[in-house]
Amino acid sequence: MIGRRSFLVTTMMAFGFAFLYIPILSMMVFSFNESRLVTVWAGFSTKWYVELIHNDQIINAAKLSLKIAAINATGAVILGTLAGLALTRFRRFKGRTLMTGMTTAPLVMPEVITGLSLLMLFVAMEQIFGWPAGRGVTTITIAHMTFSMAYVTVVIQSRLSTLDESLEEAALDLGARPAKVFFLITLPIIFPAILAGWLLAFTLSWDDLVITSFVSGPGSSTLPLVIFSKVRLGVSPDINALATIMVSLVAIGIVTAGFYMQRQEKRRERDIQAALAINQ
Amino acid sequence: MLLAELMAWIRAFGPYRWASHRLLNWGITGRTAVIGLPYLWLILFFLIPFIIVLKISVSDIRLGMPPYEPMVHWIEHQVVALQINFGNYAFLFKDALYRNAYMNSILVAAGSTVLCLLVGYPMAYGIARTSPSWRNLLLMMVMLPFWTSFLLRVYAWIGILKNNGLINNVLMAMGVIDEPIVMLQTDFAVYVGIVYSYLPFMVLPLYATLEKMDLTLLEAAADLGCHPTKAFMTITLPLSVPGIVAGSMLVFIPAVGEFVIPALLGGPDSLMIGRVLWEEFFHNRDWPVASAVAIAMLILLVGPIMILQYNQGRQAGAHR
């Protein structure tokens, strides 16, 4: 009996999931609506998808967003992995508390503050050093890397702190240099976390509206900026179509990743069992 | 292994050896590089910007680019005039609009945090008490909205809440109401938007603490004749406090400065501080006042951020 869910909890859980999914589902359903009036059903149609593909503004913005998100994710993974390593493997160094604070604060900092302060920095830097000249892809990428590396750090840190350090110690005892230990032992083990961090950083950058608005310049309209300016004028069916495509892609990605990870987990368990059997 | 070969090749490569030798001569080891690189990045792009914002918040506005007066004026040889102006803060304090926005932000953020907790706790509890094979699927379902566009998820509510939207259409078709209920552009819509968008941030930390819980404690309570409700109140709830604190802070802090949700779902009079900052910056082009608003918001958030840090630190300590 202990640990069983009661009827009340199940009902409330169902309510919670309905709350999470009804808006997304309604958006998907109405993307196939014939009528421009988004919420009145007037028959099945895929015309909004056709319209979306022919909308150059959205397609170009999506390309730009993809580019920024990919560069950002790669940079954020490098910085975040280093920060995660520093915080888990080096217990004591000068300014550790400050570093912990600086990797947690961006996670919760309201985006308007981060965006405003980064813009002020870029303007001051331009005045003093002449770089970055104006605002555009470079400033957006730097801004995205700064807040998404904090997320990567959390992911890497939690993976590293549960990692069996004796593996690394064994390699060090056998005379491997720290860099070699990292590339041959640590990196392969934490690779799933690095991949997760990359995807997370990619998504954060792909999605970001507020910080991008502050640090973007003319000619660097990312997809969220375009969507926001359209959405502010009201509901439009081609945005529903776009949302449907994005949600479907993410859902497919997450489900695939979930299955892959479950299989890896099972294989690892089998390997451990096999290793134990040999030892006996 | 390919990686090992690559490493050996790089190491044998002349410039690499020269560079690593040079770096070691300067006292830069692998350790300093691992710590130093992210450290410098964060100092330059996270810490220094706040100092600049603080500086601009005490400057005067001027026409031109950048639209604020420098703090230091060179008058003559070696004579420097320092100009600090707290007028922006006085302005924020005196103007009822800013005071209301400030108070309203706290109220809305706190209210939606409580609502999030009320919706999220049963979900986290339910997931933690489901069989492990279902648990991963349910967790994935909580995470999925988090991976999809925040902007589009907020946008989805416009179609649901507006006068000829889903809810009103359904209610009118059922004959419950004759006139549409005005929901969009009200504070109600802002609450719904925040709870909806931040729910995963509440559920995940709650789940993490509830899942770790030792269920034998509940067994012991049941054996001793304790009613399940009482057992929940005296065992489960107190043990999940770290999760409650983490989840609440993860919702409250960003919700205070939320811009997108009040801008899309809120009415013109549902003022929140994030939106005020945005308007000051993008419409009035008043950088000093926008900076002062940012600093005022930061002062409000320092406490919650410290609570979150302390809580995370204690939880991390409990793991070891």
Structure description:
The complex is a heterodimer of chains A (280) and B (320). Chain A has 280 residues and is mainly α. Chain A has helices at 7-30, 47-53, 56-89, 96-108, 111-129, 137-161, 165-173, 178-207, 210-215, 223-231, 237-279. Chain A has a domain at 57-233: MetI-like (MetI-like fold). The mean pLDDT of chain A is 86. Chain B is an all-alpha fold and 320 residues long. Chain B has 2 domains: 2-82, no CATH class; 89-319, MetI-like (MetI-like fold), CATH 1.10.3720. Chain B is 75% helix and 3% strand. A two-stranded antiparallel ribbon of chain B has the order 1-2. In chain B, helix 6 packs antiparallel against helix 9. At the A-B interface, helix 1, helix 3, helix 4, helix 5 and helix 6 of A face helix 1, helix 3, helix 5, helix 6 and helix 7 of B.
Topology overview:
The complex is a heterodimer of chains A (280) and B (320).
Chain A: H1 7-30, H2 47-53, H3 56-89, H4 96-108, H5 111-129, H6 137-161, H7 165-173, H8 178-207, H9 210-215, H10 223-231, H11 237-279
Chain B: H1 2-12, H2 14-25, H3 30-57, E1 72-76, E2 79-82, H4 87-94, H5 96-128, H6 132-147, H7 150-161, H8 166-173, H9 187-212, H10 216-223, H11 228-239, H12 241-256, H13 260-265, H14 273-282, H15 287-319
Antiparallel strand pairs in B: 1-2
Helix pairs in contact in B: 3-15, 4-15, 5-9, 5-12, 6-9, 7-9, 9-12, 10-11, 12-15, 14-15
